[in-house]
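Reviewers of the previous submission asked for a worked example of the structure-prediction workflow described in the proposal, so we include one complete record here. The input consisted solely of the amino acid sequence. No template or homolog information was supplied to the procedure at any stage.
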Amino acid sequence: MKNDIIEIRWHGRGGQGAVTSAELTALAAIHEGKYAQAFPSFGPERRGAPVLAFNRIRTDRAVRERSGIIKPDIVVVIDPGLVSLINVTDGLKPGGTLIVNSARSVEDLQQDFSGDWKLAVVDAASIAKKLLGVNIVNTTMLGALIKATEVIDCDSLREPLEERFGARAKSNFEACKQAAENTVISEITPSGDKRPRSFAVEKLPKWNELPVGCVVTDVGNTKAFCTGNWKSQHPEWLDSKCIKCGICSIFCPEGCIKQQKDGFFRADLFYCKGCGICARECWTQAIKMVEEA
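From that input alone, the workflow returned the following structure tokens.
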């Protein structure tokens, strides 16, 4: 990498550790004698909502910029589902690098993107499940970042990982190294056969169009916005265990669980954020949380 500033944008969901990834990256860079900063960007989003985190790294002088990064050199996508929901390459500089956690092949993902970027892909979820026992890929994706960009050195992560994870640092470091070994890198060039892509945009009313009183007219934060895109899991009901008590609907913070004509309850997945409260409160264990495909 050049000595001038390097800007990184992380895409993840609340609770997946994108902010932690950015912090660990900055600490590793500082350990190498570089200047670095890490900061998140999110509002009142809950667990599962799309969030951003940023890094700025430079070797020649202190980082003074404090604004959000809109033209990154590197984009890291922690949650593969975000690729089809938001434009993760928005503002990515020509010659930059796009790093994606996905079980899909590089060739398949290339059909979703076209631009003068380097594409790096790793199945970080499988590595995390194997070595960490959970599908939390933030430290695993650091290995892909190292392999694709060399913005930091792998050994520089040892101390930050030990400070953050203590006894679990060794397994997180191993996941990072294995991800680096399994990251597949390919060049992306402009192509005319890219798959068409469209992204949902929330259309908010003007101030003088707001109704008097509460804006929320039904389930979800706003009736028109698909907050179901926030979830990484969704509830499924086992009718054989369900006694139709309705506890799940009472505790649902979004009010999106309704009783059907047959008496059983179901969630409106357009609004369900996958918080899992219904499953925890169901005393007959008739609800299980299933990972999004």
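The two ends are 36 Å apart (CA to CA). We consider this example representative of the routine output the project will generate in years two and three.
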